[in-house]
Write a structure and sequence with these properties.
The complex is a heterodimer of chains A (391) and B (175).
Chain A (H helix, E strand, L loop, with lengths): L11 H24 L1 H31 L10 H6 L3 H10 L4 H4 L5 H5 L2 H6 L5 H32 L3 H28 L12 H26 L8 H32 L2 H10 L2 H21 L3 H4 L2 H27 L8 H24 L10 H4 L1 H4 L1
Helix pairs in contact in A: 1-2, 1-16, 2-4, 2-9, 2-10, 2-15, 2-16, 4-8, 8-9, 9-10, 10-11, 10-15, 11-13, 11-15, 13-15
Chain B lengths: L1 E9 L2 H14 L3 E5 L7 H5 L6 H27 L12 H27 L20 E7 L6 H9 L5 E9 L1
Antiparallel strand pairs in B: 1-3, 1-4, 2-3
Helix pairs in contact in B: 3-4
Classes of the chains: A mainly alpha (391), B alpha+beta (175).
Chain lengths: 391, 175
């Protein structure tokens, strides 16, 4: 029975819409580079940092399932595996950021650094060659590790050999340890160094929670979307329920981290730390920060609190969409005040890259999903995940 | 309430699951199903309603939240105001960790004690077992045998399909 599940095929209509939207996004970026470079570079950074988070978060999700010997998730594992296919695209985009390094990062200007004793001391870490090398290093590591895990999982579809599961458990341990450390460093490099005087040791964790939350939201959207497209018998209500629990838990984890950073800086009240929040928590940026907490925590948390709503396709889909938008706002608040230093702006240069990036990500994921079995048919844990179909 | 129970002993998880479903479908009142471990899908097979403990948990959580806010506000602003780092006496960010902990503590303890109270569990309570083997590797379905209209033979025939090991009546059980 499990072998009779049809492969996923993207409908031509969805295919066309996604391609059109990503083309529009790409066009906005190209036009923006000439018309409004000071606006497009921060948005470029937001979009590709977001895309990196989706791919890496999905990879870490797969690794987490292997490390914890999770049975429930075996049936839906192909979805996060497909999302990791966005990582190479994120790598290309982020590397293109090298051309915008001077418009984004204050520490890349030699004359500024020379007049600033704090920045002068930070040149050991914050210098252009090392920055580029680190960026390449992160992506090489993430892409290789996630590819190895996905390849082993796909090989198991043919032979059904248990050794692939065992190998992946070992690979996943490395992936989780190295992936979490390097992502924290990457968030220091790409986002925190936008304001090179400011520092927060929990910044990496805050970004990690947001990144994993957005990847979970993407997984939920795809799983529920596939249910609507006729895979209700493979992606069951139980899977949606479990994903709903994770989504709610990580939404709370995000706000926990958010409060942790905010509260400690508020408490100690040290000038070089409070500059970050004095700008962001008053005036119109303050309203956006308030909205950020509402979108990323209050609304999804209240929506998913009850058992019935966690099992409802409609409610969980809405919560996941709110979280995807909320994560964009979270990054917007981190990047924009530092890059522009003005009142919040919102227009074509903000919408274009983000929508184009998301549409492109969905296009890549749908095409990757179509290449392989939608379910890891010979996974040893599939019996636990799909008891009815596996007998 | 005194009533008789009619017990069926099974040795396989799937058998007891299917037998429970069949008994429920045939309309026999199920008293309980005994199992050495948690069997997936048994609650829905028995037709159990979703637990109301979640609402109890929510109420205790809200109570804990209010308690956390009130205690800190009353101590910090009314009863014993202390100047900590020049912060206002009534500052919400400082309350948050304690509010969080108190909410979790009160809802966790509250829901556990509510469950113990509702199921009448207390230290030293003697456990009632239909059959000592359910603590090892057997499963027991207990049906309520209210009056003479309960046809034990029909029930046995129904259970035979699911590899019934043995069936027996237990009389004068205090429910």
């Amino acid at each position: 029975m499990i072998n009779s599940i049809p492969k996923f095929q993207i409908s031509t209509k969805i295919n066309r819409i996604l391609l059109f939207l990503s083309a529009v996004g790409l066009l906005t970026i190209i036009v923006g580079l000439f018309v409004a470079p000071e606006r497009i570079w921060p948005n470029f950074l937001i979009s590709f940092y977001y895309l990196t988070g989706l791919g890496l978060g999905a990879g870490l999700f797969v690794a987490l399932q292997y490390v914890s010997n999770a049975g429930w998730s075996a049936a839906i594992r192909r979805v996060p595996e497909a999302i990791t296919a966005t990582l190479p695209f994120a790598a290309v985009g982020t590397l293109f950021l090298i051309f915008g390094i001077h418009s984004l990062y204050e520490w890349s200007h030699h004359e500024v650094v020379m007049q600033d004793s704090i920045l002068r001391n930070k040149t050991v870490w914050l210098n252009e060659p090392f920055f580029i090398a680190r960026t390449i290093g992160y992506f090489v590591l993430w892409i290789i590790l996630s590819k190895v895990i996905v390849r082993n999982s796909l090989k198991q579809d043919e032979s059904g050999d248990i050794k692939f599961t065992k190998r992946n458990v070992r690979n996943s341990v490395f992936f989780i340890i190295l992936g979490v450390y390097t992502f924290c460093l990457a968030s220091f490099d790409w986002l925190m160094s936008l304001q090179p005087h400011w520092y927060s040791t929990i910044f990496g964790w805050l970004n990690l929670s947001g990144m994993f939350l957005s990847a979970l939201a993407m997984i939920v959207i795809l799983v529920v979307g596939l249910r609507y497209m006729g895979y209700k018998h493979v992606f069951t209500t139980e899977h949606v329920h479990d994903l709903g629990r994770l989504l709610m838990a990580f939404s709370f984890f995000w706000v926990y981290m958010w409060i942790s950073q905010h509260m400690l800086i508020w408490y100690s009240n040290i000038p070089e730390e409070t500059t970050y929040y004095i700008f962001r928590h008053f005036g119109s940026w303050g309203s956006l920060s308030f909205l950020n907490v509402i979108l990323n925590w209050l609304i999804p948390f209240t929506m998913l609190l009850s058992r019935a709503t966690k099992r409802s396709d409609k409610v969980i889909l809405q919560a996941a969409v709110i979280l995807l938008i909320g994560h964009w706002l979270d990054l917007y608040i981190m990047v924009m005040p530092a890059a522009l230093g003005t009142e919040p702006v919102f227009g074509i240069w903000e919408i274009g890259p983000f929508v184009g990036m998301l549409a492109g990500a969905f296009w890549v994921v749908f095409h990757t999903l179509g290449k392989h079995n939608i379910v890891p048919v010979k996974d040893p844990y599939l019996v636990e995940s799909l008891p009815e179909l596996s007998h | 309430m005194d009533a008789q129970l009619f017990l069926g002993v099974f040795t396989n998880e799937n058998d007891v699951l299917n037998a429970t479903r069949a008994s429920k479908k045939a309309g026999y009142p199920i008293y309980d199903v005994y199992s050495p471990y948690a069997v997936h899908g048994l609650e829905s097979a028995m037709g159990l309603k979703p637990s109301r403990l979640t609402y109890v948990c929510l109420l205790f959580g809200l109570a804990g939240l209010l308690l956390g806010v009130f205690v800190q506000f009353w101590i910090g602003s009314i009863d014993w105001p202390l100047n900590v780092g020049g912060k206002p006496f009534n500052s919400l960010p400082a309350y948050l960790p304690v509010i969080f902990e108190v909410t979790v503590l009160i809802s966790g303890l509250g829901v556990v004690f509510s469950m113990l109270f509702r199921t009448k569990l207390f230290p030293g309570k003697k456990a009632w077992l239909p059959d000592i083997r359910v603590t090892n590797d057997h499963f027991v379905i207990a049906l309520i045998q209210r009056d003479a209209s309960f046809n034990t033979r029909a029930v046995q025939q129904l259970w035979q399909k699911y590899n019934l090991l043995e069936a027996k009546s237990l009389s004068e059980v205090v429910l």
